[in-house]
Amino acid sequence: MLDWLKKNQINKLSEPVISDQDAQIRVIGDRSSGKTAYMASLAYWPNANADSPVQSVTPFGDQEAGAELIARAQNILEQGLRLEQTDLNPSVNDVKDYGLSIILKSQFYFKNPRAGIQTKMVKLNITCKDYSGEFFSDLIHKVGDSILENYIQDCLQAKGILFLVDGTTHGKDSEYAKGLDKFLMALAQTDIGGNKRRLALVLTKCELSELWVSRHEPRDLTQKRFRQVYRTLQAWQQVGTGSVDYFTTSAFGMLGSRFPESNSKKITRDRNGTMSVIRDPKHWRPFGLVSPIYWLCTGERHKELDKD
Fold it and tell me: What are the structural domains of the chain?
């Protein structure tokens, strides 16, 4: 009887349980920053690296928006098509609201020689309203715009802000910093239950060689390429109303391991950023997609996700 109880206790404790980490994350960035490509790549995760800590990624919320996100993922990652930019003049009701639930494989172990091992999966939730304008320019120049105001109000409810920046748009550093300053001022006027808000700056398109070489030093890379943005974020953090961390990511990834090269084909490049399509869909290996989300939800860096 005692042996039976011990066996069933071990089996029960060995069953995975899910720890739900919902930090109410919102995604911001200009049209060129790669917001939709980022969300589409996350949604396409079943075809990512099998060794990743990520167990699954599934859409939630608006079913129509989720289906559209999956369709976009198939277009850009299966067929190598160019992602169409979001309509510049939608109505408030036409702004897409994408939601994704990310479950990490069992990463936490509580070892007890008598009770066995208990495993715990972690679920991270992220939502992205696909604002169509040039966000930071609009923050500076548009006053009283209903779509912009609704978008900002939605962001103010979030505990975590995912700030995507095309790493090749460093010529817009000053504009980003000015718009970001206004956005952070708005954040400072809202209370999120006494908790500090987290903001993750994520440099996108880091499959490009100029960014790839410094992908493991995201803070230094940001400081070098976006000096004014970096100073603005550090000043905000020093005031004590929030915390900042820095990340690099690529929706397309690299080809090869010994002499890696970008898995993307450049279509255009100008001050507003770099537009590319995937080169080899069969060897799609994105990196850095989940790491900033984990930090926003938990306040901790995940070493395995940082490698991913």
Answer: 2-307 (3.40.50.300)
